[in-house]
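Lab notebook page, bench 4
Experiment: in silico fold of construct C2
Operator: M.H.
Input chain length: 131 residues
Purpose: comparison with the prior construct
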Amino acid sequence: MVERTVFYSGGGFEVSESMLKTPRKTYALGQVEYVSVSRPLLLFAGLPAAGVIGFALTFRRYLLAEEIGMLVGCAIAALAASLVFGTLRVHSLALRDDEVAMNFGTIRRLRAVRLAVEKAMAYRDHGKQDA
């Protein structure tokens, strides 16, 4: 049995020298062009949260302290959640246009997976000395 180098393993993700396994699919790294990590929820949570905070500040003389606290607290919680979670997109020529190659998770884990994929690609392309 051939032993393979594993660059990352955890949270349903595993990156080896030739494969990227996600909770949903497995990709051959030879066909993957690149992977990217983004925070798409920040746009959807950021603008409404800023609006809610602006509303609370504008109408603070008409609102009770508890109402202001609840509005601002919920807006901050939504912003915090959008900063913690993100998506990992796998870009590959082998994927068809209608296929979505996206995985959700914490930004910290997804960045670690992306770094492991970069190391695996360098390992595959240049051998063990650059990994």
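Observations: Helices lie at 40-58, 65-84, 107-126. Residues 18 and 29 are 5 Å apart (CA to CA).
Next step: discuss at group meeting.
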